Amino acid sequence: MTQFTHPLAPDRYFDPDPTVRRLARELYATVADLPLICPHGHVDPRLLADEHATFGTPADLFIIPDHYVFRMLYSQRIGLETLGILRLDGEPVEVDHRKIWQLFAENFYLFRGTPTGLWIQEELATIFEVTQPFNASTAQPIYDQIAEKLALPEFRPRRLFERFNIEVLCTTDAATDPLTHHQAIRSSGWTGKVLPTFRPDSVVNLDTPNWTANIAALSGVSGIHVHNYATFIQALEERRSFFKGMGAVATDHAAQTAYTTELSPAAVETIFQRALHGTATPQDAITFTGHMLIEMARMSIEDGLVMQFHSGSLRNHNRLTYERFGRDMGGDIPIGAEFTRNLQPLLNQYGNDSRLTLILFTLDETTYSRELAPLAGYYPSVKLGPPWWFFDSRYGMQRYFESVIETAGLYNTSGFNDDTRAFASIPARHDLWRRASANWLAGLVARHSLSDADAGDMIIDLAYRLPKRAYHLA
């Protein structure tokens, strides 16, 4: 049988300097086949809850769930309706997935030089054995090739999970989620390790749309009638306990800024009551979130869940897209962030407690060397998340290594996470990280700043051991 060979360059992402390239190739080879640790992402657990589940069509797999894809197309005046993205008002959208795929192929040149383009090329080649370039003329034959494979049992989500060599995959789940799909995965007898992550933003951030309805849902799912701040905290603690019982190792929190503050019992109760009565102010929302971040750190010390926190994004920047299609439609834009002063109340309270692991993410690269690396290099509770979202690219990773490691050290970082909804992109994203890590280490070895032995140990840490340690998955 002829061995399939894909058209990807074996030395992709490596430095053109022959010495660095050779060292990078050798380092990468030691980790290329290690299992994937995926501690933070947005894969829908429904995909894995039913052994007979499928990905649907090629458009369902590559385009419709992936805001990396459709945000670029939207920037070139391609409406989300034409890509099959459902509208909240029920207005018609394109339902012919071949047309959607053709439109994508005709505009695939827009992704030249972007990580999204590189990931998709790798997915097509390594998963679906596509050997020809993806463009307007090849779109339909490639669609047929992918669709034929997606109909096979070995291309169902669970089988690809196993083929990708995923050791653990963590989803992101609302605090009010009953985790029905996770329970189905558990009871099915399948051995894939899929863990929930506790995401309480919809009940913690008072300016969340339908916040009072979310509080009612929290009451229902926790069995605790939330009518004041004390019962709110009890309900959150109950949900955290339930998530942990379902295997959760972490929580996940988002806020526009890293502002934290500790309120008096009377002050926090007053704000909470205003929220329950629909009279909370925008400043109330900021203050309450800042207070709750400290509360969540306290809870993490008590229950051992790793606390992830990310800021620096102005969510749903495009009001028109948000009103028509809802949240998470690619319209989140980075903003400047400040951590040193904003996190001081939280860190003064709990930052010296070694029982807390606080993993920080940001979309503001300027804070890496100025604030985040020094914080992680000092506080025993703080670790840095990887280059994330807009920066999980070859050069984003290189800038990250150059900005943080000299100050924070490697072992105050948390390795890589793919942070994706696009399931098929998971191995490509991890492969890029492993190659970028190998290339960075190779440069240090070539400059005699690092020994071969240390680089060999560090590449395993970057590819595998760091996320296991940071998320208590060992």
Question: Strands, helices and their partners?
Answer:
Elements: H1 18-31, E1 36-38, H2 46-49, H3 58-62, H4 67-75, H5 97-106, H6 115-126, H7 139-150, H8 157-163, E2 166-170, E3 173-174, H9 180-188, E4 194-195, E5 198-199, H10 201-204, H11 211-222, H12 229-245, E6 250-254, H13 265-276, H14 282-303, E7 306-311, E8 313-314, H15 319-325, E9 333-334, H16 344-350, E10 358-362, H17 367-376, E11 382-384, H18 394-408, H19 426-446, H20 452-470
Parallel strand pairs: 1-2, 2-4, 3-5, 6-7, 7-10, 10-11
Antiparallel strand pairs: 8-9
Features:
single chain, 474 residues, alpha/beta, TIM Barrel, uronate isomerase, domain 2, chain A, 2 domains, 20 helices, 8% strand
- Would you identify the regions where 5 or more consecutive residues have pLDDT less than 50? none
Strand order of the largest sheet: 6-7-10-11
**Mean pLDDT, as a whole number?**
96
Number of domains: 2
Helix content: 40-55%
Number-wise, the strands total 11
Give the number of helices.
20
Any idea what the CATH architecture of the largest domain is?
A: Alpha-Beta Barrel
Q: What's the CATH class label of the largest domain?
A: Alpha Beta
Fourth CATH level, the homologous superfamily of the largest domain? Metal-dependent hydrolases
CATH topology of the largest domain: TIM Barrel
Whole-angstrom Rg: 23 Å
Strand count, sense and barrel status of the largest sheet are: 4 strands, parallel
Fraction in beta strands: 5-15%
Q: N-to-C terminal Cα separation, in Å?
A: 40 Å
Structural class based on helices, strands and sheet pairing: alpha/beta
Shape: globular
